[in-house]
Write the structure tokens for this entry.
Amino acid sequence: QVSLDQFGRKLSIIILVICAVLFGVSVLWRHENVMNAFLFAVALAVAAIPEALSSIVTIVLSFGTRKMAKENAIIRHLQAVEGLGSVSVICSDKTGTLTQNRMTVRKLYTGGEVIDAKDADFRDPLQEPLLRTALLCSDAVISGDTEIGDPTETALVRLGETNGFDEDLVRDRWPRLTEIPFDSDRKMMSTVHKLAGGLMLVTKGATDVLLDRCVVTPEERARIEQVNEQFSNEGLRVLAFACRSVDSTAITLADENGLTFLGLIAMMDPPREESKAAVAECIRAGIRPIMITGDHKITAAAIAREIGILRDGTEAVEGAVIDGMSDEELQDFVPKVSVYARVSPEHKIRIVRAWQQRGNLVAMTGDGVNDAPALKQADIGVAMGITGTEVAKDAAGMVLADDNFATIVKAVKNGRNVYANIKRAIQFLLSGNTAGILTVLYASLMGLPVPFAAVHLLFINLLTDSLPAIALGLEPHTDEVMLEKPRPRNEGILTKPFLFSVGIEGLVIAAATVTAFYLGLNVGGAAAGQTMAFSTLCLSRLFHGFSCKSQHPVLLTRHFWNNRALLGAFAIGALLLGLVLLVPALEPLFAVAPLSIGMVGAIVGLAFGSMVVIQLLKLLRR
């Protein structure tokens, strides 16, 4: 939108200046009737300014939205379709996005022993408090194959069920009286239950955080930290559990101290099979994938290394590392880091902003209420459709129906193709309009009659421009766009290579049109000259739609025929032009003169020849 706004302003000013100059030349130099000169200048301005462009862009984006929806990417803001194609950094959560979000408990640590999950036994007096606490300090519910709740908590409930704990019986026997919910700053959750001996507060949370609140000896702490690191190095997600008795249900954060350590439970959430390929495709496309997670640094690094995010030359850090950095220092720091662990919502916002200040366009995933500010800060906020909260979805520009990182990469590919198609449509419109303006300028400077009637310009503008432009916006998507680097954040549409192409192609079509004009003047005078110039320009632009399909030659290739919409647009445009030229009743209405078979053949030959020349120039440039 920003690029199109800038483009529209510049183009309008340029065309209005050209039309004003032509009006002045017609009146002052050629002494034409003021009203006729004014009418022609207005018609030229209307024909030259692609006022249908905004409609074409909306149509192309709408088709892109529909295509993305079929691939599980729900677009909430239309601009996000194209914006995704410009993304150069993707900050992604780990759990459920890069991984399968199917937590299963693999190992336990309690009573000084590491226990395999399949060997867990609730009848063991050392294991029973840990297994019971894991079930009580959870909000998840399981009924048969139906699991409701956070995957981490459903894994804990499933562990209890497979070891003889009936979820309902346990919760009925030790009912929950109150709780302090989990939040990302504390990284803990506590609940209070009524036991036979009184009230018991049970807590689960990150190991490093919970250990600071437990009463343990230095030796015990060292052993727990060693086991925690061992689990993390195996790519397991680790939760610590503790408890203490309390006197009242009116608990505060201060009650989450002086805890008795119960044990660790380590879970595995394996990477999605498609994540590694999606990450590799990102890197090939010049996009930097970043993992931002609340997990332990070692766990996150193990998963990130497995799927290719953490590579040589980059590192994994904890969010606390950036607390003391200024914004300028953080800008220099972020390129070195591929994994951020133990992050808070504030960290996410600062990381996104740092990448943006470096000139990158950033996509950010999130699912929780606390993620909403970061999703707003990002250029493209991506919310999770399955696990995401309504607040996160409202803040996002796109929602992943399958919570899958690979879907983001597909959306980026679609976005790049959509942008490429919009540029094709713009190139088609501008190069054709340039040809018309150059033809009129040439005729004015050479003292020739006006090459077009006003109705000719309006016919081209209304009937033979819009359909090919829309059809080019629907050009079939290709994988080639993912071999290119993301375009710079501040790059406009009118780049030097783009303007060069528009200018050269417009010049070729103008040369064909002027040649036809001369032929008509020599054979049948001004009326025939106008008719041949109009017909050649119109048909040349229809042929030029095929040249705009690619920066490479498409003539004599299958690529020439693969866009049915463009073939249809060409057929409709050629049919309308044929009716105007060959139906006598329409001749006065469209100000055309009768043409001989030879003149019609010359029109077709010049129009087709302009396409051949443009294709040869593309071949030479390649």
About this structure: Residues 496-547 form the longest helix (52 residues).
